[in-house]
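User: structure tokens for this one?
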Amino acid sequence: MAVIVVRGTGDVGSAVAYLLHQAGHSVVMHDTAAPSHSRRRMAFVDALYEGKAELLGVLAKRARTLLDLGYMIQCRRAVPVIDEPLECVVATVHPEVLVDARMRKREQPPKQRGLAPLTVGLGPNFEAGANVDVAIETAWGDDLGAVVWQGRTRDLSGEPQPIAGHARDRYVYAPAAGIFTTSMSVGDSVVRGQEVARIGDLALTAPLSGYLRGLTHHGAPVREGTKIIEVDPRDNRDGVSGLAERPRRIAEGVLKAIEMNRTSPDASAASPVTRGH
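Assistant:
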């Protein structure tokens, strides 16, 4: 089985890490220090704050130093999570696969081909054969999770998938840069207009009544425009934890791409765009 570095500890990167770990691969997760991912009960991000996190029975633990990675990879008792510079992580573990699951939809990613024998990019602005070896479609629709061996994924467009009739209106975006503070937790119930958190002296209130599905970790530095609060307006907490459909289907696409590359390294020539997931 392969050693795989997954960039990004949000819900998508964590779904990828979860499925790859369950398939028997040795996964290392990488992110920046104190990331602002909000869907924390669907992710391993809290390992960077609290030392460990769990997702559907799979444990992730923060690697204190690069030297920890070798032992943790062999042990496989927990997925190692680290925020050291990426080039140092790659030089230490020599991954067979690198997956960019940071989901930076509006940013042009740097060229990552060559960082590992197989590089995989998720979402807009990735082009198979250019900045990565293979890309995965992340837009909602029949092609969600499709493996793209040649060409680009779809450009960013459209609104978030509605939940109980609410789309973008269920989110709160940071009105300014600063330190995010809150005493609430993912899964807490809120009513519309209730104060949930602050950035400095700016109060941030719930846009809807329901349950907190997304809430950036207390103390995280956030940039203006960052998605920091999300409310699920449904009557139960079932939708605030575990693997949501979109991250799961994207992760299945990543696993499929890796399996295809291992069984048929010339898959890109034989199958320019693979729509199955």
